[in-house]
Amino acid sequence: MPNYFKITAKDLESLTSRARASLINKLSGFKSPVLLGTCDQKGQNNLSIISSVFHIGSHPPLLGLVLRPPSTNFSHTYDNIIKTQQFTISHVHEGIIKQAHRCSAKFPRDISEFDAVNLTPLISKSDAWKAPAVLESKIRIGLMLNSKIDLPNKCILIIGEVKWIESDEVSFEKAQINFDSNDISVLGLYDYYKSHRLFKLSYEHYDDTRSL
Amino acid sequence: MPNYFKITAKDLESLTSRARASLINKLSGFKSPVLLGTCDQKGQNNLSIISSVFHIGSHPPLLGLVLRPPSTNFSHTYDNIIKTQQFTISHVHEGIIKQAHRCSAKFPRDISEFDAVNLTPLISKSDAWKAPAVLESKIRIGLMLNSKIDLPNKCILIIGEVKWIESDEVSFEKAQINFDSNDISVLGLYDYYKSHRLFKLSYEHYDDTRSL
């Protein structure tokens, strides 16, 4: 039995708020950072960076993400999603990490993060779609609000239904997305990584005659 | 404006169930695969692989994860969490990917995936902690059920509160977890990647005099 270091609930409680947040934010491991694009009813654009997007189901195609408690003065993303029912997810690639990360600053409501960090809002020509995506991103997804769920710590789970997927690259093959040029992940809030493909495994059947 | 390929909701509807699931499962990007360890009230161990763990909050320390609808005959993990209120998350490193992936097969209830894939259940000596973790993992987390939330597609969001964190390596420094030897992520259900650190960015303040 190897030695191991153990942190208990009591140890966690004794940490400073910042140290605890830094540690706990890493526990879920590597995530793809994405930019969440919204607008208000007057067309003021907003862009925020998150890494909590997760798969809920494929039929209907549902993604979930967590937003901070909406009671603060900086709940622009939440307010916009509730009012317009729309949002976009634009994946972050290596060329736009620093601009994307800068979107985590608390910009005033009347400042568009697109302008502040020099990214280009891509707005559909369709009258029905108002939420901006990020032109410089290689994978963009448009979602309609499906539901919002209050979480025990006052954060909000937003569930969106995928309405469209687009990519600047020829990166769909047999309805498959290619992430080869979109190979970035983040651990916690600040540590960025690049991913290299190892291998593809297959669907696993139970077979009681098989051994590993 | 570069060319891009667009898939609409109607296109998604026209895909086979398998192609749609494969595509939609990749939309949330890279995730850390983890093993979810549980046991029933008789001490029968269960281990399943998931990649939907996400951060909810750090005080209290809460993680979320999504389980399939519990109405099937293979909802052993869900049944065990509800009955025992405990579960563990063991991170997957490169040395145990294939064993971990094999846990996705639908093993009968009376077969422990630990035995079937040759991983070792690590069970606390404390009477209060019964859920097994994976000895071969380098980062293990023990959680108590905080709440369960029904999702619109009948899947279940399980929220757990972190009770302990342990690591086989000297990988905690100032309460920081080191993922250097735990650098695996998965895209969708089958594609495994290895992560290499790029850089660490810092907390972003809003400063209207700063330009990028």
Can you walk through the features of this model?
The structure is a homodimer of 212-residue chains. Chain A has one domain (31-194): Electron Transport, Fmn-binding Protein, Chain A (Pnp Oxidase, Chain A), CATH 2.30.110.10. Helix content of chain A is 17%, strand content 39%. Chain A is built from five helices and 15 strands. Chain A has helices spanning 9-14, 17-26, 76-84, 97-102, 113-117, and strands at residues 5-8, 30-31, 34-39, 45-50, 54-58, 61-67, 86-91, 121-122, 133-134, 139-150, 156-167, 172-173, 176-177, 184-187, 191-200. With 212 residues, the first copy, chain A, is of the alpha+beta class. The radius of gyration of chain A is 19 Å and the shape is globular. Strand 11 of chain A pairs antiparallel with strand 1 of chain B.
In short:
By secondary structure, chain A is of the alpha+beta class. Chain A has one domain (31-194): Pnp Oxidase, Chain A (Roll), CATH 2.30.110. Chain A contains 5 helices and 15 strands.
